[in-house]
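Suppose a colleague, Dr. K., hands you the sequence of a protein chain of 238 amino acids and asks what its three-dimensional shape might be. Before reaching for any lab equipment, you can write down a predicted structure in token form. Begin with the sequence itself:
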Amino acid sequence: MRLSKFGSTSPLVLPTGLGLLGVLVIFQSSPCLAHGVADQDTQFLMENAGPAAAAYAYLGAKHMVTGVDHLLFLAGVIFFLHRLKDVATYVTLFALGHSATLLIGVLGGVHADIYLVDALIGFSVAYKAFENMGGFRVLGVHPNPKAAVAFFGLCHGFGLATKLQSVALSPDGLVINILSFNVGVEIGQIVALTAMLSVFVLWRKHGQFARHAFAANWVLLTTGFVLMGFHVTGYVLA
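The predicted structure, expressed as tokens, is then:
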């Protein structure tokens, strides 16, 4: 299901949008925004030497459940998915992409500009919302939704890799630590996804889902572009 065309927004748009943007302003300096690493976690990563699988798995899970942009993109992906089979398919594509670039970036030493990667991640949120709103049908184009999710999965994984690359990680036990971190990321994704699916199920049963669907995706679209502009500005100033 997708919204068939752009229509009028409900009165929910303005207060919800302002509230969400307010949260972003409050947390824009937080490491949770755009796959950041908290100061205390950075300290641990810098001081740790040798295998620490449990600690890295915990950090991976923590990253996932506190990553605002990641959660917003996942919300957009599952917004109109009703069957668990479809949810599993799209989330698996996203997870494969996310895992691949995390491992390639950190273990393979592939680098990219941190601001540009995060800007692309912000764009992914806006892209998915635009697709949910039927924007591509209005334009007369039909991009493959599965390919898009897989591609943006690569971007999100690279976003995390750039953060870890900024920390002087010890080569001792690096492979097992990064693999454990990735396992933690996927565990955190399952936890976050379970919570989001529960919210969507309750929302749909409430009877207001169809009425507010456009408004909610409008907020996602706006937030995605705010994130994108924030990081593009950071790139220019840097």
